[in-house]
Specification:
The chain has 288 residues and is of the alpha+beta class. The protein is 47% helix and 17% strand. The two termini are 26 Å apart.
Length: 288
């Protein structure tokens, strides 16, 4: 098949590998980007994660939190320019869309955003007509009734984090130490972009894929099988530190993991506080 220059550039942007290597990988993978990425990683030419910050769509991450912390909403609203994103009209649109999500409650889903006759699309149409730019609402996150919800907005609305904690009684939620913990964990997620709440949440097929990549990287090392096994396990530990929140190095103190931070806070609060789920939205990543 014919591989276009645009496809090669896209893979290069994702991996940081050279143009010729990207073209060869895409050709070998018959144009499959995920497979080409894996090929490059096996050859040591690409990092485990795609480079961040490649998305170009503008807009804002909007947020709203209930006074008692029992519910929260994050929503991404895109437009064409940062100039429009900073206008009062656009920021009001973001809040109006959050209101529609709250009205829908537990029934809020992707169809709420896409229904051409629904309230979100009607509000978008009015804003597009007024502000003269194309706009979209690609995604939202709503947590309610299952724990204590905290939020953090970074870079003036370009990144938004929502995190839900379990084991938080009302008296614990009122303490300053807990408020500090919520902010620290949310900032951790914003800065380090983990994917999973625990190692158990990492899909088995993903672990198998990572192990196969690590073994492929060791094929020419001429080391005994048991040594290679230990090296693979060590690399897997590094992988967990990238993608699993409790395994990550704390942004506040590099000598601690996030698990250490949670354990220390739980001891101070005399309550077993854990993270049950989280979401991190960055403007442009969900753009259509």
């Amino acid at each position: 098949m014919t591989i276009t220059a645009a496809e090669v550039k896209k893979l290069r942007d994702q991996t940081g590998a050279g143009m010729m290597e990207c073209k060869a990988a895409l050709t070998e993978a018959n144009g499959d980007f995920d497979e080409a990425n894996t090929i490059l990683r096996k050859r040591g030419l690409a990092s485990a994660a795609k480079k961040a910050g490649r998305a170009t769509s503008e807009g804002l991450i909007g947020s709203r939190l209930s006074p008692d912390g029992s519910a929260g909403v994050l929503v991404e609203v895109n437009c064409e320019s940062d100039f429009v994103a900073r206008t009062d009209d656009f920021q009001q649109l973001v809040q109006d869309i959050i209101t529609e999500i709250e009205k829908a409650g537990d029934g809020a889903g992707q169809t709420l955003l896409t229904d051409p006759n629904g309230p979100v699309q009607k509000r978008l149409a009015a804003a597009i007509a007024k502000l003269g730019e194309n706009m979209a609402v690609p995604r939202f996150v709503r947590y309610a009734g299952k724990g204590h919800v905290g939020q953090y907005i970074h870079m003036g609305g370009k990144i938004g984090v929502q995190v839900e904690f379990a084991g938080v009684a009302p008296e614990v939620a009122k303490r300053d130490e807990f408020a500090t913990l919520v902010k620290e964990i949310a900032m951790q997620i914003a800065a380090s972009s983990p994917t999973y709440v625990s190692r158990a949440d990492v899909p088995g097929e993903l672990l198998d894929k990572e192990k196969s990549i690590y073994r492929a990287q060791m094929e020419t090392a001429n080391k005994p099988a048991n040594v290679i096994d230990k090296i693979v396990e060590g690399k897997l530990g590094s992988f967990y530190k990238q993608v699993v929140l409790p395994d990550q190095e704390s942004i506040r103190d590099s000598k601690l993991t996030v698990a250490d931070v949670l354990a220390a806070a739980s001891k101070t609060l005399a309550a077993q506080v854990t993270v049950s789920r989280f979401a991190r939205l960055r403007v442009g990543e969900g753009a259509q």
